[in-house]
Description:
The protein is of the alpha/beta class.
Amino acid sequence: MKKEISHDMPTVLVEHPRAGTALVTLNRPQSLNSFNLQTVYELDAILSSLATDDSCRVVVLTGAGRGFCSGHELAEMRNSGELVSPVEAMAVQQAFAALTVRVRTMPQPVVAAVNGPAAGAGLALALASDIRICSESAKFNAAFVRIGLSGCDVGVSYLLPRIVGPTLAFEMMLTGRLVGADEALRSGLVLRVVPGSEVVPAAFAVAESICANSPFGVRMTKEVMWANLDAPSLQSAIDMENRTQVLCVQTRDMQEAIAAFVDKRPPVFTNS
């Protein structure tokens, strides 16, 4: 499918408000930042660019206005029956699903600052992030089943049970009900709940703590953590940890971290 992107009004914004941290904002507040294909392609392009940017250590992901992301734009979905073939329909489906993989596999940690509803594909975007902080007004739901689709879509059936456990995940996906901020906190879906005006600053605070560590150590931590969620055995997980630690020991940044600790000073990392 040809990717047609209008540059008149970007639906995704990227800023660098702090050293090492990129703020990526979905910018369709009039629809609670719902996804259309333009948004999908713009977000994918921005994340792809950030993934290879050595100056970017952490990505904070949020939405403009009072919503995080309300999922696939229903007006666009209503017109999906006009697609001429299953091949074209599959291309659209794969474009949406690829965003989940993109967020999950970025070398930088992604912190979702969920400032309002996160539904459907918006829930998937939050789940694919490494850390989630939400506002008191945040609500989460696997909305797919409520619009005639399978509750299993764009990676939610893989990610949700690993984060909240299979019992709650099944119930959320089968009913499509809304999960509020307090329940999200109790179930481990989010790290913490903060007032709405504090959700992005709280994400920045987490990002700052991450940036205090060596770039390679952080990257390997994310990579191994996700890989070991699917490890077939404890020994397999330990084998991966061992290989990674041998690599980390050989970096200059590891030696700098130790020297800084002994000297009681902040480390100066060079990503080498």
